[in-house]
Write a structure and sequence with these properties.
Layout: E1 3-7, H1 11-22, E2 26-30, H2 38-42, E3 51-52, E4 60-62, H3 65-74, H4 77-86, E5 91-94, E6 97-100, H5 105-118, E7 122-124, E8 127-134, E9 143-149, E10 152-158, E11 160-163, H6 178-185, E12 190-196, E13 200-202, H7 207-210, E14 214-223, E15 226-237, E16 241-243, H8 245-259, E17 264-269, H9 276-292, H10 299-303, H11 309-318, H12 332-343, E18 345-352, E19 360-365, E20 382-384, E21 391-393, H13 398-416
Parallel strand pairs: 1-2, 1-11, 2-7, 11-20
Antiparallel strand pairs: 3-6, 4-21, 5-6, 8-9, 9-10, 12-19, 13-16, 13-18, 14-15, 14-17, 15-16, 17-18
The structure holds flavin-adenine dinucleotide.
The site of flavin-adenine dinucleotide has 38 residues, from helix 1, helix 2, helix 6 and helix 13.
């Protein structure tokens, strides 16, 4: 019977431990926090968006799409849905976003706790890993794991190790990046970890005046003057910059560009769905109507129907107009410029928020150094699962799905692995 150690009791570690145990291994989870599964409870605003029915590798970022696709082929989004249902956990599908029917993340954690106890997986919390080493010449290639339990140093032997320590995102939940060090000690390459699914910061002082505004928008990410990608949805403006799902979706690419010292801008269309020339036509006809009536009308009075009031006031100020001034004699070129800015507002991005605010981590252990069994190509018997490797997905259940799929594959293969 294989002895398997899983380092990290997050989504991927729990799945890996359960699958290794189901396939006949004796399994121990080492978790350095006081409890397992802390991050699971934070997911999907406490509801746990555990997967998504709309699924392709385009929803992911990695340095090895071949491995990614093979892992998903072995355990897919549909497999995860059925895995839960066949174990008595009902599932809710909200426009393809999958949740436990209870909409409580605790349901998913309780499911793993129950199953791990059925399969007699040993869970050691508040454990500190001191060193993991492997002797290929003796002990059949066993790993020696030195760890601290309370104050006592303990040495244990394992046939296989699964590193499932997460990345650096939300370190308050336990993923503090210490897993990277363990991988490096085995000779693995760690690609610079960067915050992803995170807010973007700007140095513009006007953000204080528009903080709190939420609106539908299209946001394009522009790097060194070139548009890389675009996202639509609810934009949230904060006193330091931009937030909301569309911003999160762009943030990994922005973080990479910033890391490479490139010029990063967000181009925001505050009136998506209406063409610029149609807006110009509408406003021009309003101005003509008011001119015929020989009435007076200010910028604010004519434009407040187009865009959130706080945004309008900020934009007028930034464009050199006063809201209380008459708009009736505005030059056509100035009007067109103003409307153009509402459709293409440039925001200079200077940073992302830190890891503490990020939902995931871009970067990590290079996936070029593992095979589709999730086993290291450098160290036989060493497996990886979850966010510790260089895979990150879009918002919408994709990151947990990677944790489940890679955990499943790593656990199953570790259970059967014989080194010598
Ligand atoms: C606020 C928030 C909301 C999210 N919502 C969603 C969502 O709705 N849907 C979705 O798909 N994804 C979501 N994610 C992302 C998703 O939670 C993660 O991608 C996923 O949990 C990663 O699982 P993991 O097992 O790889 O790592 P983690 O969940 O980070 O678990 C790693 C575990 O390893 C432990 N550990 C680390 N180092 C050591 C060590 N040296 N020794 C022992 N133990 C160690 C940690 O304490 C932790 O318990 C969200 C993330 C956050 C922060």
């Amino acid at each position: 019977m294989n002895e398997v150690a899983v380092i990290g009791g997050g989504a991927s570690g729990l799945m890996a431990a359960l699958e290794a145990a189901k396939n006949g291994a004796r399994v121990t989870i080492f978790e350095h926090k006081d409890r397992i599964g802390k991050k699971i409870l934070m997911t999907g605003n406490g509801k746990c968006n555990f997967s998504n029915l709309s699924f392709s590798d385009k929803d992911y970022y990695t340095d090895n799409f071949e491995v990614l696709n093979e892992v998903f082929h072995m355990f897919s989004n549909i497999d995860m849905k059925n895995y839960l249902i066949s174990n008595g956990i009902m599932v809710k599908d909200k426009n393809n976003y999958l949740y436990p029917y209870t909409e409580q993340a605790a349901t998913i954690l309780d499911f793993f706790r129950r199953e791990l106890s059925y399969y007699q997986v040993k869970i050691i919390t508040e454990s500190e890993i001191i060193k993991i080493s492997q002797n290929l010449k003796e002990d059949n290639g066993c790993f020696t794991l030195e760890h601290k339990e309370q104050t006592e140093k303990v040495r244990d032997k394992f046939d296989c190790i699964i590193l499932a320590c997460g990345g650096k995102a939300a370190p308050q939940s336990g993923s503090d990046g210490s897993g990277y060090q363990l991988a490096k000690e085995f000779g693995h390459t760690v690609i610079q970890p960067l915050p992803s699914l995170v807010q973007l910061r700007s140095s513009e002082s006007y953000f204080k005046s528009i903080a709190g505004v939420r609106c539908e928008a299209e946001i394009k990410l522009c790097v060194d003057g070139k548009i890389l990608t675009a996202e639509s949805g609810e934009l949230q403006l904060t006193d330091y910059g931009i937030s909301g799902i569309p911003v999160f979706q762009l943030s990994g690419a922005a973080a990479e560009a910033l890391e490479q010292k490139k010029r990063v801008e967000a181009l925001i269309d505050f009136i998506p769905g209406t063409l610029e020339k149609e807006l110009i036509r509408q406003v021009t006809s309003q101005i003509e109507r008011l001119n015929k009536l020989k009435t007076s009308a200010t910028f604010e009075e004519v434009l407040f129907g187009l865009i959130n009031k706080k945004l309008l006031l900020m934009m007028l100020k930034q464009s050199g107009f006063r809201p209380e001034d008459s708009i009736l004699n505005i030059r056509q070129a100035d009007l067109e410029k103003l409307i153009h800015r509402m459709k293409t507002w440039y925001v200079k991005i200077v940073n992302t928020n830190p890891f503490a605010n990020a939902q995931v981590c871009r970067g990590g252990v290079s996936c070029k150094e593992m095979n589709s069994d999730c086993e290291s190509l450098l160290v036989p018997g060493l497996f990886f699962a979850g966010e510790i490797v260089n895979v990150d997905g879009r918002c919408g259940g994709y990151n947990l799905q990677w944790a489940w799929s890679s955990g499943y594959v790593a656990g199953k293969n570790a259970a059967y692995k014989h080194i010598n």
